# Entry
Amino acid sequence: MNEDILSGKWKQLRGKAKERWGELTDDELDQIEGKRDQVIGLIQEKYGYAREKAEEEYDDFVDSLED
# Structure
């Protein structure tokens, strides 16, 4: 799923993101609107992950949406 599609469907998908990363607040999820860099930044901040680990988490999430 490309980033434009993800951003367009973010309101529908944010519940799945909330399930995956429960520490992200509804307000934060609303503000980032599925933008890759912002999602990765929040994952890094909330979970203390290195950039590479946060990118891997995000990519795994997006891949799971395509199944």
In short: The CA atoms of residues 17 and 61 lie 8 Å apart.
